[in-house]
């Protein structure tokens, strides 16, 4: 089955760090660009970051630049998002998504990150 | 990276057509034919509905169509059905490997 499964979310205090994972299966992970997209409770989708197929090119939204790092391990078919210096406004459901053309054709079920004191 | 502008809500009766707009700038919607649309039911992940302005992925009913004029893209849902009730989001490539989403539109089937 073709799927993406996120993990690693949780509750943590402002300033903390967390690493999210996205395990891919059912397709050739190493051939695809990948993205992270987040959605605060009751709010809209916001693009966070993307990485090209071999991990050599990474881009970030201004709101997370310098705090978040995207990476991938093609041998493990896994995408990561290292999040440092977390703020209350980073509270959201985090989705990984596969790139298709210039869109996002497959999404995981999401993992929830809550930043609160 | 400002969000694209969508109306907060839209509605229509079963069998009718409804159009949702998505307004950006010359740096995103107006600059590229790379607008995509997503359907999201409550508590679910988004679903890929339209890409490159008007192309439908395999499995998406042809009741869903997309178009663009200048800096405004549109999603039209024809022959509304109860299961079309959901949130809809547009997205556009914004250059330099950046993407931007719209704020979302809640579609209600009356």
Polypeptide structure, described:
The complex is a heterodimer of chains A (117) and B (110). Chain A is mainly beta and 117 residues long. Chain A has strands spanning 3-7, 10-12, 18-25, 34-39, 45-51, 58-60, 68-73, 78-83, 92-100, 103-107, 111-115. In chain A, strands 2, 4, 5, 6, 9, 10 and 11 form a seven-stranded mixed beta sheet that branches. In chain A, strands 1-3-8-7 form a four-stranded antiparallel beta sheet, with no helix packed on it. Chain A is globular and about 40 Å long. The relative contact order of chain A is 0.31. The model of chain A has no long low-confidence stretch (mean pLDDT 97). Chain B is mainly β. Chain B is built from no helices and nine strands. In chain B, a hairpin with a 2-residue loop joins strand 5 (64-69) and strand 6 (72-77). Chain B is globular. In chain B, 37% of the residues are buried. The model of chain B has no long low-confidence stretch (mean pLDDT 97). At the A-B interface, strand 5, strand 9 and strand 10 of A face strand 3, strand 7 and strand 8 of B.
């Amino acid at each position: 089955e073709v799927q993406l499964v996120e993990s690693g979310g949780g509750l943590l205090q402002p300033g903390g760090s967390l690493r999210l994972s996205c395990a891919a299966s059912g397709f050739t992970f190493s051939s695809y660009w990948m993205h992270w997209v987040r959605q605060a409770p009751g709010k809209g989708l916001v693009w966070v970051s993307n990485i090209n197929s071999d991990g050599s090119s990474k881009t970030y939204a201004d709101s997370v630049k310098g705090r978040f790092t995207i990476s991938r391990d093609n041998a493990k078919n896994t995408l990561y998002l290292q999040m440092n210096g977390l703020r209350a406004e980073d509270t959201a459901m985090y989705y990984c998504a596969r790139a298709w053309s210039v869109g996002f054709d497959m999404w995981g079920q999401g993992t929830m990150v809550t930043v609160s004191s | 990276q400002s969000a694209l502008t969508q109306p907060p809500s839209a509605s229509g009766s079963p069998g009718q057509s409804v159009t949702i707009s998505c307004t950006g700038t010359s740096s995103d919607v107006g600059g590229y034919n790379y607008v995509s649309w997503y359907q999201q039911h409550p508590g679910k992940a988004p679903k890929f509905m339209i890409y490159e302005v008007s192309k439908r992925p395999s499995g998406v009913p042809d009741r869903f169509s997309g178009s663009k004029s200048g800096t405004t893209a549109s999603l039209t849902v024809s022959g509304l059905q109860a299961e079309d009730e959901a949130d809809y989001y547009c997205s556009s490539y914004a250059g330099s490997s950046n993407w931007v989403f719209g704020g979302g539109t809640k579609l209600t089937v009356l």
